[in-house]
Protein 1
Amino acid sequence: MAPNNDDPFKLLIHKLERLAKLDEKDEAAIRTLPFRIVRYTAGQHLVHEGDRPTDCCLLLEGFACRYKLTNSGARQIVSFHMAGDILDLQHLMLARADHSVSTITDAVVAWLPAANIREMLTRHPVINEALWRDSLIDASIFREWVLNVGRRDAKARVAHMLCEFAARREAAGLGSAERFELPMTQEQIADATGMTPIHVNRMLHALAEDGVIARDKRSVQILDWEGMQRAGDFRPAYLHAAA
Amino acid sequence: MAPNNDDPFKLLIHKLERLAKLDEKDEAAIRTLPFRIVRYTAGQHLVHEGDRPTDCCLLLEGFACRYKLTNSGARQIVSFHMAGDILDLQHLMLARADHSVSTITDAVVAWLPAANIREMLTRHPVINEALWRDSLIDASIFREWVLNVGRRDAKARVAHMLCEFAARREAAGLGSAERFELPMTQEQIADATGMTPIHVNRMLHALAEDGVIARDKRSVQILDWEGMQRAGDFRPAYLHAAA
DNA sequence: CGTAGGTTTGACTGATCTCAAGTTTGGTGG
DNA sequence: CCACCAAACTTGAGATCAGTCAAACCTACG
């Protein structure tokens, strides 16, 4: 696969353009940010809870997640991320990481110094607006996850997670929502939905039996998008995708 | 109780000063924002999911919550709020409300036109920073709630919710964390923790039997703050209270 | 006082977890 | 190219935490 090294900001700018009206100067400001490209294998940590990060990481390729641990060691994934996402925008403004970030597949990341981004924000109000909006959408997704984990039953939780993944993937321009390869293991789906991997497995089988999805290894085909949305109680408004 | 009408911005400025170094001009800019004071009784709605709000609401007195509903009508409270909190800062930047806001006690609210706030942000970078930081802390709390609801057992969930309420209340200067009056019903605690009110009731009794709290009607006394934090797996770093 | 909303208690049910084996898959080294 | 290994997935059976249903019991307020 071709690394995005030649244009690391392509997907990010694509996303921010949907969030605010960037002009050429704004775009140029983003493109002149200093950065450092690092490649990671699956399962490596980019940020540890408690760190004081000085850089923000922009995911160029692959998939990542953010998670927290209980004192007893149980893990809760709080978000999944894909190419074009900034994984820890909060470190622009918050000193200490309140959660960890790790890759879930092999990945390529561009590290951007937070100080440079902050300085850019003061001179480019439209970028300020776009990034703020991006972080507010992040927060909206967290709220939906509280609802998902708090009030939906197991089958709906898994279905909702799949719907969100498909919808975001498509919105980010990474491929169709009809059929895709899941980057995460069933254990990671379990950690994201507050379940055990065993029950995730059963619910995936149940969704297939219901005829809304077909699976082959990690690849998922959504056979009935209407039915799948119903199964997952998925209404995409919270993604704020429509401007 | 004396309404905060005489200085509606007092608690907000107090909070923002801990988030960024406001100077006198910044403070003056906040104080000259136009506003409209409205009084509400318990259980009234300030924002409905799907609305396109043009104003942001600043809570001056009383308590409020934000919540979402599943299609089947189950409610999940995603946050509790107290005097000094802006309840829907996201409407500065996001057109449609992705959740509802309602009072849980009698309350006084100042409505601030979002356009005026946005205009203020462009001229006062420090306020921009403070409000952004506030919304990032909001997001951090949502992440902790995903963890709470997803990976803690019933007793810990209730204990965590109480710890957070006590800690935020104290940090906001609204009184001691040792003893306080709960503004919310057990049904609302249930909706916040993803439980049934019946089980919330049992867990409150269990915490009292464990000797970490004492209750009398809605008033709660924390007898053993260490033990209570242990019971709730509560580590306050996610509140980002220390600058 | 009567009423409605909130809280408490008990008995039963059930969704999801736990424990325990297998089976499949994908990567690695010979 | 094949054999092996670890990780991921799958399946079954039994246990349990939390939900459901039902009924009192407070208590604040009109």
Protein 2
Amino acid sequence: MKNQIRHKEISFFDKVYQVVRLIPKGKVTSYGAIAKYLGAARSARMVGWAMNNSHVCKPHVPAQRVVNRMGLLTGKQHFGTPNMMQKLLENEGIKIKDNQIQNFEKHFWDPSKELL
DNA sequence: ACCATGACGTTTC
DNA sequence: CGAAACGCCATGG
């Protein structure tokens, strides 16, 4: 992949990574919210795909804080071990049951609102 | 340029 | 209420 900045333009993926890094500890957001913040509300799939490539990203991308709109840990399988994502979130004070984040709205962090 | 992929989201059945 | 079908769009081959 092109990866990083070949010219001056920043890739869609890189934008996603930056937003994900801005998610406060103990907070979570959805792919759609990130996509919306990036101006591509209908590109939620791209956000998820960007996370798939997040493993090539330099620092640690807290992809565990990014879930689908229902607060479901859909991408936990991509953390190497199936329980890694849940454990990371629980370590931040988030309760999860059956891959579902409890009090999802309470932990939800909307970049287009909070970050502004 | 065309086709396949994808950690989503909405609608439909 | 759950599963499937569609839509959506950036990226790679």
